[in-house]
Design goal:
This protein has helices spanning about 20-30, 50-55, 65-75, 100-115, and strands spanning about 10-15, 35-40, 60-65, 85. By secondary structure, it is of the alpha/beta class. The chain has one domain: Response regulator (Rossmann fold). A 4-stranded parallel sheet has the order 2-1-3-4. α1 (about 20-30) packs across α4.
Length: about 120
């Protein structure tokens, strides 16, 4: 058997508690055949706590706020070299699956798709 190239990208969405923003984003893109999707939070009490294994798994990390990006860069700088990391700049003002949150996520992701970043 020859080498088979990976056709899907691993997207990791990160927020604080993994209760509203990142699970909503993961839900929106989990059925897209181009991606394998997971979500996590930076707080110890997050539903899924962000860890080194998730960072290693991800090809593209999408954080909701700049402090999430800072946290990831401080904790795992040595394993981020081949990863793309983007801040969607979505504040913690929305409930899970709210129409406003869905529209914000889709809009910010569309900009990244349009630029060819993802």
């Amino acid at each position: 058997m020859g080498f088979v190239s990976k056709t899907t990208k691993n997207l990791l969405f990160v927020c604080t508690g993994n209760r509203d923003r990142s699970p909503t984003a993961a839900y929106l893109y989990k059925s897209n055949k181009r991606f394998d999707v997971k979500s996590a939070g930076t707080m110890q009490s997050a539903k899924v706590h962000l860890d080194e294994n998730l960072i290693k798994w991800a090809d593209i990390i999408l954080v909701m706020e700049s402090h999430h990006e800072t946290y990831i860069r401080e904790q795992w700088s040595e394993i981020l070299t081949d990863k793309k990391l983007f801040c969607l700049d979505i504040p913690d003002d929305y409930e899970c699956m709210s129409p406003q949150l869905i529209n914000l996520i889709r809009g910010r992701m569309e900009v990244l798709f349009h630029k060819g970043e993802i």
